[in-house]
Every structure is written in structure tokens, then in C-alpha cells.
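ok trying this again, last paste got cut off
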Amino acid sequence: MFSLILAAVMSFQISNITVKAQWNPNTPSEAVTQYTLIVDGGAPITVLPSACTLTVCEQAITLTFASHTFSLTATNQWGTSPATLFTANLSVSSPSNFRVVR
């Protein structure tokens, strides 16, 4: 499972937001040595199993408000898993109840 959780700290420049990519760790018997997260085809981000609890792994990343693609793989001594792919659209909602009064 792979999901994005919005962080509590947000940049009010309206151009960037810090989010946490979260996923369930592989079982200990798979002896994962690292997870690799790639955002929008950019540089790989290595996440070590020590950054995971028994139920969740997470990596904080800063993104712009736009559509983003994520690729996540797990690596152990026998090789690398096929990528889990995920797309998310981060956007700011429009203000509501706007009016001009005199």
C-alpha cells in the first residue's frame, strides 16, 4: 500500500508543500535492505528499513502544487522488486463565499 499524507507544516508561499510518502514495509523475512522512491522521474531517494516501524515506512518530500508521479521499489540481497506506481494531484482549493460589500 502506498499513500500520501499531508504534513502538518505547510509553506504559505503557495508554491510548495511538505508531504509524507507512506507505505507498508515488507515482511521481515524478505530482508529488505532499502526502498527507493522516485518522484517525477527525478533523483532516487533511498529509504532504509531503519526509517520504518513494523507497520509504516515514510519519507518527507517537498512538492509543488501539481500532479506528481511516484515509483517505489524494495531491494534485498536477491534483487529489486517491480515498481509500485502512484499518481497524486496536489492542489489548493479555491476560496469560498467571496463577495464585495460596501
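PB: full thing came through this time. The CA atoms of residues 13 and 83 lie 33 Å apart.
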